[in-house]
Specification:
This protein is of the alpha/beta class and 263 residues long. α6 runs parallel beside α7. 32% of the residues are buried. A 5-stranded parallel β-sheet has the order 4-3-5-6-7, with helices on both faces. Strands 1-2 form a two-stranded antiparallel sheet. Strands 8-9 form a two-stranded antiparallel sheet. It contains 9 helices and 9 strands.
Amino acid sequence: MIDKYHGHVMQGHDVRDNPRDNRMSFRQKITITLVLILVVAVALVPAIQSMISSNSHAVEASPSAAPEEPIAGNTFDRVLFAGDSISVGRDARLLPESFRAITSRHLKASGTESITTIAKSGAKLNYIAQSKSLPKDLDLAIIEMGTNDAGGKTPTETFRQEYQNYLKRIRALSPTVDLVCLGVWYRPETQIAQDLDAAIKQTCEANNGTYVPLSDLYSNAKNRGPRGVDTWKGKSDLFHPNTAGHLAIAERLLRELSLSPAS
């Protein structure tokens, strides 16, 4: 049965709640609740302070944060490679591993739009210089000539005059072109190699160009051979730059062009 104190029916027995017990239980509940609220509040204070501090720093940093600068590009929109079998890519294991291909990739990656190659295996300077396909409005001309002139014993003064005429012809079609002149790929101890390198250096610099020697790279045996290795252009020999030699030429050239290291 249920009494006036709202006791509970329990197996037929009258169980009555003590009002004092109810009051004590209510106070305990209130006390426990307040304690829990206080504990939670104390625990949350550091986190709230951290959030406020973080937001404050972000707002303060935004006005002074400098935007990221774009990757710098080169100024060589139109480029010419002029050369012989080395510019063709002879004895690189694969054509993309040739110095011209490596250099071209870096040029294109940094903004170059057009690359023209005038190169022929076995060609002397006068053959390439007479090419009718010379483009105009070039920004950069990379000239790798003289190696076959060294091998063919072209007289130094004849070569010097031919080199001067070729640079003048390029400059006439491209008044603001940057000239980069590679030295001969030949035995540096020979007089003809020394004479032609001197002629290239003097003529190039007289035309406001940059001379890049290759004789020391040729002297490093690791940059040539071995003979008989299969390459994209047939069997290798002991003379032309191998894949390592082409990479060494590309790295030196790219440094002169202020581009990133070769890969």
